[in-house]
Amino acid sequence: MTPRFPAPAWLVGCGNMAGAMVEGWRAAGVDFSGVTVIRPSGAPVEGVHTVTAYPGEMPRFVLLGFKPQKLDNIAPELAKRCGPRTMVVSMLAGVEIASLRARFPGVRAVVRAMPNLPVAIGQGVVAVQGEGAAAGEVVELMRPLGMVVTTERECGLAGIGAIAGAGPAYVARFADALAEAGRAHGVERDALAIALQTLGGTAALMQGTGEDGASLARRVASPNGTTEAGLAVLDQDGALERLIEATISAAIARGRELAQAAAGRG
Ligand SMILES: NC(=O)c1ccc[n+]([C@@H]2O[C@H](COP(=O)([O-])OP(=O)(O)OC[C@H]3O[C@@H](n4cnc5c(N)ncnc54)[C@H](OP(=O)(O)O)[C@@H]3O)[C@@H](O)[C@H]2O)c1
Predict the structure, then answer these.
(1) What integer pLDDT is reported at residue 155 of this predicted model?
(2) What is the pTM of this model?
(3) Least enclosed by CB within 10 Å: which of 35, 66, 131, 151?
(4) CA distance readout (Å), 44 to 4, 22, 57, 119, 233
């Protein structure tokens, strides 16, 4: 069943990420009649009423879709317009429930939702964490966007945010690197398309078989063959694992900084 927004619903900020969510909801046939986008540029969002100033009526649902650094500019005015029937859903990386609660003390519930860009085509990951029954309502709303996971603890959300929220950036750069290496070694045309088909096909295969990467790699690599020669480079001194671990740790550390900044100001 297609979920419905509690109306009136406000999408406060609608850039790359909230815009991708709107695309995913639109493709799923979600009704936007009770939804308003509020953004300073007033840039239109297809199929959704878009304005530059808050409407008069108290919202029942507010999605925070701006950058974490904007929270203290936006929260004081926005909080005045919210009330005991309002659910606030934040996708601000790093900013914890307690910091949001401090800024929206009178609202019904505060929920965090950490999406990623493939929500635009219903292939995203959305992690949800938050207060009681409201988190369940947010899970239902996010279902058309892809895989929805719930987490009890904020550190779980930070981890999912680092691998899934930020993940498309890393996967996209890996695809570029694969294509570039192909070009350097004689792939004349369609190097990126070939790299993407390889990534997508491998992911689909692993989802279908349920096997892990090590098992699939064993099926590709014959002893002393070409793949094994390449894997030896990836595995030398744990090169691949160390690189990915350092990448994810850096994202989590930045999330912690954003969390502390928001907690400090709260
Ligand atoms: N990008 C991702 O892949 C991703 C993944 C997970 C979570 N997130 C989170 O999503 C949030 C948005 O990221 P983004 O990449 O979508 O950023 P973005 O493309 O820069 O969009 C930011 C939005 O905030 C709006 N905005 C700025 N000032 C505002 C104000 N005073 N009142 C209302 N709206 C205001 C902007 O409006 P205008 O368009 O009118 O300028 C814009 O629509 C961040 O908190 C980020 O942590 C992003």
Answers:
(1) 87
(2) 0.95
(3) 131
(4) 21, 12, 21, 20, 49
